[in-house]
Structure formats: C-alpha cells, structure tokens
Specification:
The complex is a heterodimer of chains A (313) and B (260). By secondary structure, chain A is an alpha/beta fold. Helix content of chain A is 32%, strand content 29%. The two termini of chain A are 34 Å apart. Chain B is globular and about 60 Å long. Classes of the chains: A alpha/beta (313), B mainly alpha (260). Chains A and B meet through strand 6, helix 2 and helix 4 of A and helix 1 and helix 4 of B.
C-alpha cells in the first residue's frame, strides 16, 4: 500500500538575532513514511521539532531542505488540502465568531454547499462533545478545553483522508480526553489516517499503531509501537508470574540463570532472560509448591523508551 | 476559477463580519452627530452658505473617518491573523495566500463601502433638512471618488503590513496619504527648483506613490458640480490598476512568509 505521508530529508533552519544572525536547526534531515488507515504518534520533547514538522506539512513553514508528499502530492500543492484536516496546538480561532459560524466559514472554504454546512457542523460539534447550548456562543467566551473540541471539529469538517492533530488532548479534562480518544479511534475505524503529536504517552500507548520519536530535530526511533516497546531480538526477556511460592526459594535459580525475582501484588514475578529459560523457571516454581499464573514477554513502557531516547540528546 | 472566487468571497464575508463585530461602524454615530450639529448650528454662521458648508464638512469628514478605518483596520487585517495564530487553521484549508489577502482586502472595502454609503445618505438627508436639496444628488459623484481613494489607502496599508509591524505600517500609510495629496504640487515645486536630482526624485515619487488628487472633488461637489465621464473612468481605471499592482506585490511577499 502506498504511503499516505512521505517525508524525505526534511530540514528547517531558523535565523535568530537582529544584527548578528545565528542559524538554529529545528529539524535535521527527517525522513519518514506513514501508511494509510493508522494512527501515527509523533513524539519528542519540547523543541524536538514536532510542531515544525507539522507546520511544514501544512504549508505554514517552508523547509530549508528536503521534500514531503501527502496523498502522493507535494506539500506545496494547496489543492491537496481539500483532503486533509489540521488541528493546531492550543488552537485559537476568530473570537468574534460562534462555534457554528466558524464551522460554516471553514466548510465554505472547502466548497461544501451552504445547505449541508449546518448539518455537517452540528454533527461534528456533537461528536466532539460540545454542548448544543454553546454552539452559538462567541468563541471568546470558550474555555481552553472547549476551544480544543472546536479545533478537532473544524479539522474534520471536510471528512479528510488524513488528519494532523498537534497535541489534541491539550486542555482537556480526563472525561474529555477519554471522549476524544474514542473519537480518534473511531476515525481509524472509518479509514481516516491520523498523524498525532502528543506528550501524553498513555494516549499513544492506547491509540497509536506506529510512532516516531524525534530528538533535537532528528529521528531517534520509528516503527510499530509494539516492536519498539519489546526489548527485542533473540534475547527477549519473559516474566513468569506465580502464586504460593516464596521468592527466597527462587534466588538460587535466578542467580544461576541470570534471572530476577520481584514481589508482585498477586505473587512473585520471575523475569527470565530469554525464551530458553521459561521451562526451567516454571519447573523450579512448581518444585517449590508454586502455582503458575501467567507467562508474558517483558516490554518496556513507552515512558521508559521515550525517556531513554530523549536522554540520549 | 469559480472555486477560487467562492473562497475569496468566504474570506471577504468573514472580514466584513469581523469589522462589524469589532464595532468599526460605530464611527457612523460620531459622523452623524457631526453632520446634524453642522446642519443645526452653522445655519446662522455661514450666511446662506449652509448647504455648501455641510457638503464640505460632510465629505471631508467622510474622507478622514474612512482613511482612519482604512489605515488602522487595514494594517491589522493580516498582521492580526498572524499574531493571533488564526492563520494556522485557515491555511490548512484549500485556500491560497493570495486568495486570503484579496478576500481580506475586499472585506474591508465592503465595510468602507457601507460606511461611505451611510455617511453619504446622512449628508444628503442633512442637505434636505437644511434646504440644500440641489446638492443632495451631485455629492454622490464625489462620494464615489472618495470610496476609490479609500480603497487605494487600504491596499497601501495591506502592502506595508505584509512586511512591517502594524505601527510602522500605519505611519507609512499615513505618509503615503499625505504625500499622495501633495504629489502634483511637489512635482511642480521640483521643476521650479531646476535641480536635476530633485526633479528625478519628485518625478519618481509622483509616479510610484498614488496620485490622490485624481479623487479629490469635494470643493467642486459643494458647488453643485458632477465629475465628467472621463474623470469617473480615469479615476476608476487608475484605482483598479494601482490596487491590483499593490495587492500583487503584497501577495508575493505574503506568500513567502513563514508562520512560526
């Protein structure tokens, strides 16, 4: 399947200073592809280059070097914007407009017929959880969370094939986050590709199929989320969880096999270094009167992976 | 082409709505007070010249109120969108930057048009009230020219705001407004001085800056005169060509801007 987003060697330099101009490289040779129909998480610390990348893709910034295509068309082709949606970070809209007016204005820019604009807007405002009583209130009276919901709604007004969300959970309360998470998951089900930058790693773990981690403007890691989180290769560690066994009795085996024993709420966890030691580990547990509860590969959390990548900088 | 015009219309409609909701048209209240006051108070002071005085005050106030809006709203038309980051969501839509700029420009022109139409109606009513009905119709020729002058000032404001700060843009636009009214006199002065450098400089100023004298017909209107067809056509063509060039330059600059 052809990639829906193709980024090739994208770089962006900013000039700072007035008299003595200094060049700061915000993005450095980023290459990336995103397949259709997935939720792609775009991660990185502050200043890693996430928003710069999205702004280049949206035509708000011009790259210093490199190129990018969305839906097979170069990002300089404005007509491609008919099929994409974008919700900026901390969205700010015309505060003299109501949510409904903003939606119909943007629907008009997409050429959606006037007769359909209100229905489409109502449907989306309802979908993002904005109470009907707020639809005709001016946006200057909206809270940050409400603006975020309007931002999401406007990014979907044209039923895009791919939507770019820059920190879509920002400003939302836990209930709001859950609703928006469900909305984003629903977009994938309807075939929309979601390219999402976020700091909220639990959302990435819950939603994303693939991720890319940026570090100081460079791509630090990319791939399937589960593959990245697995410690990988032939030395994939496993955890055997058992109840009714004393941890002390497993220490001898642990020392000999390079395993670790840790206390868990429901018993003990024996982390063996690879698949080869699983049978031996289960045998020792049973010999000591233990009851096997589960065996599963040990994966690092996204937070651990993210921290490890960010700390390298 | 149709889609492009539709998008320009959407942006223009929104810019007009913005101006109305930002209470730009509130200046009409002040204008109306001024006209009513002149109609009532100047009768005794002007010794039979009340209608001409109303026309002079009305058209001059119309030009200055309109220029004030063209400069201060014009310089903020685009810069405010960048400062408030509203352009981020707008430019993710299938909207070219040129279309956006032209739409914003036309939106402010619509606002100025409504403004001059209501002001013109106010002056006409004041003339009818003051017994100067012979001037109530001829002033509309001058009002037509004032509108085009304001349209040029708006384009100048947009051009400056495409590459400089709002306050500097406002200052530069005001200077263009002043020099635009004096450029013919400055050219005559330079020629009378006999200096080649001064002649070159003021000739360049004369041709580069708008010659707003083409749109000045206030005194004549106060005497009941109507601009002839050649003046109407010449001023309209001059304004359309000049505005088109300014907007093309502004769009070219704006199209290369990065929005951090």
């Amino acid at each position: 399947m052809d990639p829906i987003i193709e980024i090739e060697g994208l770089s962006k330099d900013y000039e700072t200073g007035f008299w003595k101009k200094k060049t700061v490289r915000a993005l450095d040779g980023l290459s990336l592809t995103v397949s259709p129909g997935q939720i792609f998480g775009f991660l990185g610390g502050n200043g890693a280059g996430k928003t710069t990348t999205i702004k280049i893709l949206m035509g708000l910034l011009f790259p210093t070097a490199g190129s990018a295509k969305i839906l097979g068309r170069d990002i300089s082709d404005v007509s491609m914007h008919r099929e994409i949606g974008y919700c900026p970070e901390n969205p700010y809209f015309y505060d003299y407009l109501s949510a409904m007016e903003l939606m119909t204005y943007f629907a008009g820019l997409f050429g959606i017929p006037a007769s359909e604009q209100k229905d489409r807007s109502s449907e989306l405002l309802r979908q993002v959880g904005l109470a009907e009583k707020d639809w005709n209130r001016q946006l200057r009276k909206f809270s940050k969370g409400m603006l975020q919901r309007v931002g999401l709604a406007q990014s979907l007004v044209n039923a895009p094939k791919v939507v770019f969300l820059d920190e879509p959970m920002s400003g939302l309360d836990p209930m709001g986050r859950r609703e928006i998470r469900e909305l984003i998951a629903g977009l994938r089900e309807s075939g929309t590709t979601v390219f999402m930058s976020t700091h909220i790693l639990s959302d990435v773990e819950a939603l994303c199929d693939e991720v890319a981690i940026l570090r100081s403007g460079r791509l630090a890691a990319t791939g399937n989320l589960h593959d990245l989180l697995a410690r990988g290769g032939e030395r994939q560690p496993f955890e055997i969880v058992a109840a009714g066994v004393d941890a002390e009795r497993l220490q001898e085996f642990a020392k000999a096999s390079g395993s670790f024993v840790r206390q868990k709420a429901n018993g003990i966890g024996l982390e063996v270094p690879s698949e080869v030691e699983i049978d031996a580990g289960i045998k020792v547990i049973r010999e000591n009167g233990g009851r096997l509860l589960s065996v599963q590969p040990v994966k690092q959390s996204l937070e651990e992976l993210f921290a490890a990548e960010v700390e390298k900088s | 082409m149709d889609r492009s015009l539709h998008r320009i219309f959407c942006v223009a409609k929104n810019a007009f709505r913005e101006a109305v909701r930002d209470r730009v048209l509130y200046n009409l209240i002040l204008f109306m007070l001024l006209i009513v006051a002149s109609a009532i108070l100047l009768g005794d002071l002007t010794d039979g010249q009340q209608d001409r005085t109303i026309v002079n005050i009305g058209l001059t106030a119309m030009l200055f109120f309109g220029t004030f809006i063209a400069i201060f709203v014009g310089v903020g038309l685009v810069s405010k969108e960048i400062e408030k980051r509203t352009v981020f969501a707008v430019f993710a839509k299938p909207l070219r930057r040129t279309e956006f700029m032209v739409g914003k420009y036309l939106g402010l022109c619509m606002t100025l048009l409504v403004n001059v139409l209501i002001m013109g109606a106010g002056v006409s009513l004041a003339l009818l009230f003051a017994g100067g009905s012979r001037l109530a119709l001829p002033i509309w020729g001058a009002i037509y020219l004032i509108f085009f002058e304001l349209a040029i000032i708006t384009a100048v404001a947009i051009l400056f705001s495409s590459f400089s700060s709002p306050s500097l843009s406002a200052l530069l636009t005001f200077l263009v407004f002043v020099i635009g009214h004096l450029s013919s006199s400055l050219l005559d002065l330079a020629r009378s001085l006999g200096s080649v450098a001064a002649n070159w400089f003021f000739t360049a100023v004369y041709y580069v800056l708008p010659n707003l004298a083409h749109f000045s017909f206030r005194t004549e209107a106060a005497n009941g005169m109507i601009p002839n067809t050649a003046m109407f056509a010449g001023a309209t063509a001059y304004a359309v060509v000049y505005i088109s060039i300014l907007l093309m330059i502004a769009a070219a600059i704006f199209s290369r801007r990065n929005f951090k």
